[in-house]
Amino acid sequence: MGTSQKTCKVKNILISQPAPADFEKSPYKPVSDKYGLKFTFKKLFQVEGISAIEFRKNKINLLDYTAVILTSRNAVDHYFRMAKEMRAQIPISMKFICSSESVAYYIQTYIQYRKRKIFFGKQTTEEMMDVVAKHKNEKFLFPCQEDSYSDVPAAFAKAKIPLKKAPMYRSVAVKVAQEIDIEKIDMILMFSPMGIKSLFENYPDFKQGKKLIGIYGHSVADSAHQAGLTVNLAAPTPTSSSMAEALGEFLADLVKHGGDMSKISPHFEYRPDLESVAEPEAKGKKKPATAKIQGGSGSSTKKIENRVAANKAAAMAVMADKKNSRSKVKK
Questions:
Q1: What structural domains and CATH numbers belong to the chain?
Q2: Average pLDDT of the chain?
Q3: In 81, 108, 118, 306, which residue has its Cα 20 to 30 A from 273's Cα atom?
Q4: To 5 degrees, how large is the angle CA 90–CA 95–CA 99?
């Protein structure tokens, strides 16, 4: 057993995500090997679609709108599911504005990408709104989760652009208390506010104690903070865009300081008192133009790392651009 394995006090980590199809190729595998960790993958909630009958009570006609805002694969799945259940033939003139390139390309699961008007921002809501501003005269529909934590409606309100929320799916807690002994878990990694809610539903008497909490995203950080949890690792960090990378860095720092959390680098912390903090070298940089794809035409785009937008009341003290790399979007 290596030195790092002997000094790292974190051994059992619960990751609130489905287990990877091939853990050997998972980004968590190198971290597991280096620190002798045992990962338990279990998503603490599941997504259920709202029925067409229930959706009709909102008196929303999908074809009354000329543009759709899509911020996740769930939103894509349930928008096209709802259209099928309501027998709504989506016209080729419909515009789809997505929060990221990955969401934009996921649309091709349902439609021919080349023949559609599809646009996307880089990653944050602010960047997506740069795209929306170019189409502000459209009638916008926002397929979303019931009780959504999204900051998209607030962004539209700030821009004074009308937006219709259309709840099409909901998250429900999954019962895991009988299969996971939470007392044996040293660290919990969370990726959704619903995961925070499900944690307390499964373990009503849950006390964090010495357990470490890692989160991904500002809305999850806020939910954890409001639930009385101390966030020890807030990802993405100024130097890592993924949870696996952030976890590796965090554990390296933990080992470096002999497991003393009081000495951990502050860039892992969630700081609700700050709106946003960027790395010094990121300041003064010219903001890259928002990439877009229209009708599947080929163009060059830049891959950028996740950046954290300011939350309504607060945001994590994390945001920094990593090295940009170029890739071509094939026609």
A1: 3-44+176-268 (3.40.50.10090), 48-171+285-302 (3.40.50.10090)
A2: 80
A3: 306
A4: 120
